[in-house]
Design a protein that fits this description.
By secondary structure, the protein is α/β, with parallel strands linked by helices. It has 2 domains: 4-223, Spore Coat Polysaccharide Biosynthesis Protein SpsA, Chain A (Alpha-Beta Complex); 312-447, 3 Solenoid (UDP N-Acetylglucosamine Acyltransferase, domain 1). It is 19% helix and 29% strand. The N and C termini lie far apart (67 Å). Bound molecules: uridine-diphosphate-N-acetylglucosamine and calcium ion.
């Protein structure tokens, strides 16, 4: 079986972003721009892509890590010169080289796969991706001879007025036979602009009497390259639409897709309804038949089925089935809400487990706590997790306990099963099961020690 490796160009400066962040690291839906090109190239070639870095190369390498092999192009002398940097790494190791750009996040793996397959099926040394478009966006024009065969590519800057009228454009994405490519790159002349153009490799193939094949892309939107933050927003909107559409076709209702932000790593179950202005980020997983939003942000959180989340913020948390939260709830790292938990407005839970059926209606903070089943947490309950010893400690509450409104639980403290705390209790000692405690034991012990 033949092998194909992608070379992804990312050494350019991206001047028009006016940014200290390298262009290819600007995020779209929570991932650096370059991630999309890397993903598509990896799945089309079934191998780890080689990324050509230059401007901001260290930052790019650090941000993308293992996702690619890296070669450095320094100085940047054009697209042909950029591809040449991968020769040492790839020569003799791959039959085909797929060249693409890191700044084209909309290009689909399917399109790249079609390009690779088209090249593998032909005898000539290269298949190039073209697009017919009204707006040339500064792309190179495809030249064809009298017989309709590709005869070369002319860059916009060098094109004659006649050539400028050509609507068949060079996307800049090619699949080459590797042996031909490495040899042809050495024969690329210096352009009037002082660069080595990869497009000239096409002319070299034609001059050698070899067949150049053009594959017309079906969807011009895939070819959008990012040069400015306007392009970034356009591409982000299109990617978002693509993802939203995929979820709708998979049985998820989005009541306002235009204000729904679902990152690529997210999964949503059937018959779940996502209400407007909802952001699903990171490794979030949502089950079936949930109602999520409006006005909700969910990050790295796993949600079961039949849950409701209204106007809330959830981060690195877990909700089992039939859990309700909001409006205005906040789950933080390590919050675990078991089946049937109800958490009403202005609740915050961090690093705590709320047992099955536990209710926490209003204005409570639960941190570093283990709460068993069917506990009632009254309005304004606070776990004071920085205890009297100044250390973070745990609060444990047994099944069926009733925590009165405005109770302060000063950790470490354990409330026994079925115990009751009265309104406004400040609990500093463990409460035995089935016992009623009330009042405020707080009293001055000693002067506060100086601390820094
Ligand atoms: C290139 C093509 C043009 C095509 C267009 C599509 C050439 C000469 N022209 O033009 O026919 O229509 O893409 O977008 O190839 N890069 C490097 N090192 C360099 C120069 C560029 O890594 O020395 C990278 C850039 O970071 C960028 C990509 O290559 O990702 C394209 O470079 P760019 O200068 O934008 O090429 P275009 O002028 O757009
Ligand atoms: Ca460009």
């Amino acid at each position: 079986m033949s092998t194909t490796t992608a070379v992804i160009l990312a050494a350019g400066q991206g001047t028009r972003m006016l940014s200290t962040l390298p262009k290819v690291l600007h995020p779209i839906l929570g991932r650096p721009l370059a991630h999309y090109a890397l993903d598509a190239a990896r799945s089309a070639t079934a191998s780890q892509p080689v990324m050509v870095i230059g401007h901001g190369g260290d930052a790019v390498r650090q941000a993308l890590g293992e996702a690619a092999h890296y070669v450095v192009q320094e100085p940047q002398l054009g697209t042909a010169h950029a591809v040449q940097q991968a020769e040492t790494l790839l020569k003799g190791r791959t039959d085909y080289v797929l060249v693409t750009y890191a700044d084209m996040p909309l290009l689909r793996a399917e399109t790249l796969t079609r390009l690779v397959q088209a090249q593998q099926a032909q005898r000539g040394p290269v298949t190039m991706l073209t697009v017919i478009a009204e707006d040339p966006r500064g792309f190179g024009r495809i030249l064809r001879d009298a017989d309709g065969r590709v005869s070369g590519i002319v860059e916009e800057a060098q094109a004659t007025p006649e050539q400028l009228k050509i609507h068949e454009l060079n996307v800049g994405v090619y699949c080459f036979s590797a042996d031909f490519l490495w040899d042809a790159l050495r024969r690329v002349p210096l352009s009037p602009k002082g660069e080595y153009y990869l497009t000239d490799v096409i002319g070299i193939a034609v001059a050698d009497g070899l067949d150049v094949q053009a594959l017309a892309a079906e969807d011009a939107a895939e070819m959008i390259g990012i040069n400015t933050r306007v392009h970034l927003a356009e591409a982000a909107a299109l990617l978002r639409e693509r993802i939203n559409r995929q979820w709708m076709l998979a049985g998820v209702t989005l009541t306002a897709p235009a204000t729904t932000y679902i990152e690529p790593g997210v999964a949503v179950g059937r018959d779940t309804v996502i209400e407007p202005n909802t952001h699903l980020r990171g490794k979030t997983i949502i089950g079936e038949n949930c109602i999520i939003g409006p006005n909700t942000v969910i990050v790295d959180t796993s949600i079961g089925s039949h849950c409701k989340v209204l106007a809330s913020m959830l981060e690195s948390a877990v909700m089992e089935d039939h859990v309700e939260i909001g409006p205005f709830g906040h789950l933080r790292k390590g919050a675990y809400l078991c089946q049937g938990v109800h958490m009403g407005n202005f609740g915050e839970v961090k690093n705590s487990r709320l047992g099955p059926g536990t209710k926490m209606g209003h204005f409570s903070y639960i941190g570093d706590a283990g709460i068993e089943a069917d506990v009632n947490i009254g309005a304004g309950t606070i776990t004071c997790n920085f205890g009297m010893d100044g250390k973070k400690s745990r609060t444990e509450i047994g099944a069926g306990a009733f925590i009165g409104s405005d109770t302060l639980l000063v950790a470490p403290v354990t409330i026994g099963k079925g115990a009751v705390t009265g309104s406004g209790a400040v609990v500093t000692h463990d409460v035995p099961p089935d016992t009623i405690v009330v009042g405020v034991p707080a009293r001055p012990l000693r002067a506060r020690e100086k601390h820094d």
